[in-house]
Write a structure and sequence with these properties.
single chain; alpha/beta; Rossmann fold; 6-stranded parallel beta sheet; about 40% helix; globular
Length: about 210
């Protein structure tokens, strides 16, 4: 049976069928002493984003939105020659998010009891994980995309989410990367082909009782 099309922001982010996806907010990607900090990446946009993300997490939990955390890890068993070549070519062969190290731990965000944590080994949280099963088991239709990095794992997950027929709501100021140009390029891609882009204040306003009842 075909479901009714969701057109407005309020319809799309209704807590009954929406999941907030928090992608890769981990020490190696965000902390000054993490791998990307040691690599010399400009972290200020990432670190300035996190307090806004924490406020959205509070709003989502208050509204009853399903919150799911995705975390990137690597082990010797999950690395490939393709992954190693990319790391050696573009990231000075620095290891990051090695399973069991502090770098793989969450950065200033903490999953609450009952909130699923999806461990992934590739950019997209859909590749060889249970994410799609978790979402469909909970009747989710919309993914609210947040996290790090905008143009990497967040965009990859958003693209695959769209391909699996989820509505995509990408939160501009609750995703971050290390380059303004790369951030904007992803937002352009999302608007053009994969979903809608909103700010955190607009998103939280859509969860107020007045808007939901209107």
């Amino acid at each position: 049976m075909s479901l009714a099309m969701l057109r407005t922001l309020e319809e799309k982010v209704d807590p009954g069928h929406t999941s907030l996806i928090v992608v890769d907010v981990q020490n190696d990607f965000c902390a000054s002493d993490g791998a990307f900090g040691r690599l010399g990446r400009d972290l200020h946009r990432v670190q300035e984003m996190v307090p806004r993300l924490k406020r959205v997490l509070v709003a989502a939990r208050t509204a009853g939105v399903t919150v799911i955390f995705a975390r990137y890890t690597q082990t010797p068993a999950t690395e490939s020659d393709v992954h190693l070549e990319q790391r050696q070519r573009g990231r000075a062969n620095i290891e990051y998010c090695r399973e069991g190290t502090p770098g793989a731990d969450f950065y200033e965000v903490t999953p609450q009891s009952g909130e699923p944590i999806v461990t992934k080994h590739r950019y997209s949280a859909f590749i060889n994980t249970d994410l799609d099963l978790i979402l469909r088991s909970r009747g989710i239709r919309t993914l609210i995309m947040t996290g790090v990095a905008t143009n990497g794992c967040v965009e990859a997950t958003a693209r695959d989410g769209f391909m699996y027929d989820y509505y995509i709501v990408f939160v501009d100021d609750c995703a971050a990367t290390y380059s303004v140009d790369q951030h904007q390029a992803t937002l352009n891609n999302i608007r053009d082909a994969y979903g809608i882009v909103v700010g955190s204040e607009e998103l939280c306003a859509a969860w107020t009782s007045e808007n939901r009842l209107g």
